[in-house]
Design brief:
CATH topology: Immunoglobulin-like
Shape: elongated
Number of strands: 11
Structural class: mainly beta
Distance between the termini: 41 Å
CATH superfamily: Immunoglobulins
Strand order of the largest sheet: 4-11-10-6-8
Radius of gyration: 22 Å
Amino acid sequence: MCPASRVCTQLFTIAQHNISLPFLLVGAVSEPRVAFDAPCVNFGQCLVGGARGHTTVCLVNSEDLLFSFQLDKSSYEATEQQTALLGRRPAIELVPSSGTVPPHGKVLINATFNPYEERLYNYNVTCKVRDTRVCVRALCNTCC
């Protein structure tokens, strides 16, 4: 990711001394380099009501700073409202769904797939880091 340069011109004024000086502020802005280690997770075929599919994905921080993250539960039908409305548990469970990623470190996220009906499942899970939607990963599976 290339940092985007930002330029801002301002006028610094001291009214009591009748002084006004222009100044230029230049900086670079970039999104955090935080991403999942795999572009897609495929649990393979699972039986409805049978054994659950399990895997682990890593959220990797390539920055010198600590970042907090939050998985958007609405992107994989796991909010309390969606669960109550649908009357069932979500097919995908991701733990932890929020936390912090240390500088130049990673967080392991356990993904469990437990299908509730025979169909194709495909979720684009959104991960928010520093109020920016930075990670979208597909979790997919077929059930029989």
